[in-house]
Amino acid sequence: MEQLRYPPKPKPGDRVAVVSPSAGLPAIFPHVYELGLRRLREELGLEPVEYPTTRAVHADPRDRARDVTAAFADPTVTAVLATVGGDDQLTVTPHLDDAVLRANPKPFFGYSDNTNLLNHLHKLGIVGYHGGSVLVHLGRPGALHPLSTESLRAALFTTDWYELRPADEWGDQPHDWNDPATLATEPPMVPGTGWTWLGNRRVVTGRTWGGNLEILHWLAAADRIAPAAELAGSVLVIETSEELPPAVEVYRMLRNLGERGLLAGFPAVLVGRAKAWDFARPHTVAERRAYAEAQRDAIMRALAAYAPEAVVVFDLDLGHTDPQLIIPYGGEIRVDALTGRITVRY
């Protein structure tokens, strides 16, 4: 793994690439996508630049990789934003031109299946940004969430330290994108519960690594993860998706990473609030709470076996959450279990 470095940041008024390295959902939900683009222009002052596969369904992985490479190569583009996630970006990253990416480092924003590209950039020594979906968060019904917007704006335009803070309200029950009328009202929210600190009580500083847990497991199977020795000392950041993996599978995925020697090297583990609602499984609030508690127990069981000295923080608003905090991927972080504070350098 190369030495990690922060890429130059965009300025208001700049052109930024909007790409679909995973699913081409802008073609299926143009009303949501257009809202996200409008917010990108009006709220953040950036001019989106699309590519041939941005609105293409089932685009060939080589074509998607070509678009990502072109976005990094374009000297007039100062950042790259993913439209949404998906499930096959594992087939895209092998076709990227790494020489172009190294020579033209730019901030890349994405999460979920975009863990593939974030991990790929990390191995090239380029700090990325976990979060910032054009459809999901910029295209949020009703209005942008203030906390998401504040974090995204800071990650896009600043290089300073930023203190993360728990959301006063949160939700994981989105509106149905098939009904354009739902864009008029904000999704339902529930009162925030703060973070839960477990494990060791100390201060940890380091660089972040991780992403969506299911994708990390796929990356491990494809042998796309750096050796444990190279990742040792990193702060692990994990979250789970709308597929709602059962607690036993969450445990097994972490157990397998532990057997690979990875977990023992992480002095701190940050866990995103477990997404516990989906259209196929419309859980009640009580059922969502039970799901999250079962997942927490599974994670702690794995960490007790493979990283018993780690500082552990649950219920952060990162990943498949509303609101969503942006986490620098490979960037600097300070986890202070003594004062209950987490700061990141964007």
Briefly note the structural class of the backbone. Answer: alpha/beta
Shape, principal axes of CA atoms: globular
Report how far the terminal alpha carbons are from each other.
Answer: 21 Å
Q: DSSP helix count?
A: 10
Q: What does the main sheet amount to?
A: 8 strands, mixed
CATH class of the largest domain: Alpha Beta
Query: What is the CA-based Rg, rounded?
Result: 19 Å
**Overall structural domain count:** 2
- Please tally the β strands and state the result: 16
What's the short story on this structure?
Residues 16-131 form the LD-carboxypeptidase N-terminal domain. The protein is an alpha/beta fold and 346 residues long.
Give the SSE layout:
Layout: E1 15-19, H1 30-42, E2 47-50, H2 61-73, E3 77-82, H3 98-103, E4 108-110, H4 115-123, E5 128-130, H5 134-138, H6 146-157, E6 161-164, E7 169-170, E8 190-191, E9 196-199, E10 203-212, H7 213-221, H8 228-231, E11 235-239, H9 247-259, E12 268-272, H10 285-306, E13 311-316, E14 327-329, E15 332-336, E16 341-345
Helix pairs in contact: 7-9, 9-10
